[in-house]
Amino acid sequence: MQQIKNRTLLAFVCEPSDTSLAVTNPADGEVLCHIPTQTEAEINSAIERANTARKTWAKTSAKERAVILRRWFDLIMQNQDDLGRLMTLEQGKPLAEAKGEVAYGASFIEWFSEEAKRTYGDSIPGPTTDKRIVTIKQPIGVACAITPWNFPIAMITRKAAPALAAGCTFICKPANQTPLSAYAVAELGYQAGIPRDALQLVVNASSSMVGKVFTGSPLIRKLSFTGSTGVGRLLMAQCADSIKRTSMELGGNAPFIVFDDADIDLAVKGAVASKFRNAGQTCVCANRFYVQNGVYDAFVAKFKAEVEKLKVGNGLNEGVTIGPVIDASAKEKIMHLTDHTVAQGAKLVTGGQQLDGLFVQPTILADVTHDMDIVQEEIFGPIAPVIRFSTDDELIDMANDTIYGLASYFYSQNINRIWKVAEALEYGMVGINEGMISTEVAPFGGVKQSGIGREGAKQGIDEYMDIKYLCFGGIQA
């Protein structure tokens, strides 16, 4: 960890023990450090402290919370280089990508520092002259989150920032593979003035145990989860007993569609950005490519040329654009999907070779058909299956033929087609002639079994607030 200049970012590390958690570098398998874990009793104690702290934090003015959050944003950006390096060490993504995520994660803190002062209620005309009706918004209480390893800063700040801005206290369980970025960002939050009991992190080797504590606690009023649809279903069921509010950002199976009237060069640029960011390990990355017959061969040829420019390696090395996948089981799944799809009749255009360690070669598979297994799988790796289609109606049926509905992308220059397809796609987000759609100013979330709720934008803070209706009677007109 000698590459980290700001040693306060690593104040949470500990000596190896039976209860500590080892954090490893997926690029070379090196154990970076050990961090302490919390028992079930300690997690319940953290929840109790958060419940006590919420009474004070909720009473701070919106402006005061805004000032603290803005200070947190500034500190994160001042430490962008160290935070990016720390993320690359524990998660593997290239350093430039990691630093980009730091800025992206910080943008949610900046945004919600501003939104804290805009949680407006309403004045509603009364049904009779002696009544006055208003609504106010109040923080829901203690909120908790369980976040994934693929975006170890952004997935936390996207949840913590609106919760704290609303006046809630917040407890998060970061992924066991990538806790260092989470602890470092939290430490900067404390330096900014967030009370330690108002922002807490808990870690345990058993994610299911932590989930049961969170969902079973009567003190927690909100759970936000980013992860697989299967785990999301389980957490929602566990929350049902106490009727907790939930936000779920779950699996995706994003179609990337290229019509015959598309700007092919623009589409290829978007395809590379959408598919291969973070080695394909994002919930919104393009998962299956549908290309119309008239431009299929041209698109595949240009796509191949650009993909072969990508450089695989340790994310700290100069020029690397594809880092390792997160662990051996992830690589095994990706390679199995590739081999199985070829066995079903797909053509290997580029990539597909076995690499050492946890590295996976960027791969394009052509002549994939919609009935192949890979079309219904969330690949979560740098593999691009390309499928032919003929008509718009055929395409829409295939694109919507999935339980998921998170992100989708399509390229066309025909305004009539653009409106028709954008409205017909059953997805919470649609990129039109654009492969990178994530931003703090727009509502992020899916439909169908890709989840419920929205993060970011003005809607994000409402997920952490209750609307209270006040009816004043006996008014003398």
Automatic annotation (TrEMBL):
Source species: Photobacterium halotolerans
A GO molecular-function annotation: succinate-semialdehyde dehydrogenase (NAD+) activity
Catalytic residues in the record: 249
Protein name as it appears in the record: Succinate-semialdehyde dehydrogenase
EC number, UniProt record: 1.2.1.16
GO BP annotations listed: gamma-aminobutyric acid catabolic process
Pfam families reported in the protein's UniProt record: Aldedh
Top-level taxonomy: Bacteria, Pseudomonadati, Pseudomonadota, Gammaproteobacteria, Vibrionales
PROSITE patterns: ALDEHYDE_DEHYDR_CYS, ALDEHYDE_DEHYDR_GLU
Record-linked InterPro entries: Ald_DH/histidinol_DH (IPR016161), Ald_DH_C (IPR016163), Ald_DH_CS_CYS (IPR016160), Ald_DH_CS_GLU (IPR029510), Ald_DH_N (IPR016162), Aldehyde_DH_dom (IPR015590), Aldehyde_DH_Superfamily (IPR050740), Succ_semiAld_DH (IPR010102)
